[in-house]
Known about the structure:
By secondary structure, this protein is α/β, with parallel strands linked by helices. It has 2 domains: 37-98, no CATH class; 114-178, Orthogonal Bundle (DNA polymerase, domain 1), CATH 1.10.150.280. Helices cover 33% and strands 11% of the residues. The strands form 2 sheets. Strands 2-1-3 form a 3-stranded mixed sheet, covered by helices on one side. A two-stranded parallel ribbon has the order 4-5. The model is unreliable at 25-39 (pLDDT under 50).
Amino acid sequence: MFKILIGVVVAAFVVIIGFLVIDPDLNKSNNNNSITEVVTDGYRYTIEGEVNKAGTYVLSDNITMADLISAAGGVKNTADELSYFDNAPLKSGSTYYIAGKYDETDICSKTEINKVNINEDDASTLMSVNGITTSIASSIVSYRTENGIFDTLEELMEVYGIGNATYHKIRNYVILHS
């Protein structure tokens, strides 16, 4: 029994060393002469939604939405240009979303989504969006009265009553300007 146990341990050790030594992508890496540079300086900004290359980008501090969109290869033709301000200042470590014009769950539809303007519409108009209740609509109006206009869709999460789930539910149905 002891000999079998030692044999299993030795075999496992040999297999582990073999996996560590053998590189299955060895032939691919020899043909690729590109160099990957890891950037550690800068600030991280994540963008998702209707952009050509969604992801996290390391950029300088004090950038605007236009800078981040440019880093992401621009917006798609389905992006709703009313859902962002090009000159909006961004916070490092945050994720930003570019909403689409069309319902993302209906891939065949080319009918634009009817959206509300969170910077201009009154509480009753805001409540036409599924997920915006009477109290949330009042909180949105109060927030913009006290703090000024919303620069990004993500600022909605600073409104009392809007958490991550509500934000994700309503972000495709609101715009920032007309």
